[in-house]
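Data availability (excerpt). The following record was deposited with the supplementary files.
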Amino acid sequence: MPAGHTITQATLARRLTLLLDAHCVRGRPTDFPTISAAVTDAGAKLSRARWAYVRNEKSAHTPRDTEFMRALAEFFDVPLDYLTSEEAPIPASVTAALDDVREAREAEVIEFATAQLKDLSPDKLARVTDALTRAS
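Predicted structure:
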């Protein structure tokens, strides 16, 4: 592993998921073609297969290519060490988005539950939705 690359694949995958969520709640594009183009413009390569294994916590392939990691860091506007070091703190920009990410995830859960429970009476559905809202 190159100097400074101490991150595990599981941590990297979780951090990328958080960065994607933070980008999404800010209205920024998170689709593969946009990310791939940005990585390519920065001088690195990103195939769909590579993107899949980089985002997979159980992958045996932790990226060791500093240029690739630098390109991802630039795209997500975080310090390189956040994507390469297990000990790196969460950047302030990500911390600032955490509440919005949490709210978006909670809204998805409530939306899913509501869709699954559509056959309940409106009163029971309102009680379930209220319980989910209070639990979050």
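Summary of structural features: The first helix runs from residue 9 to 25.
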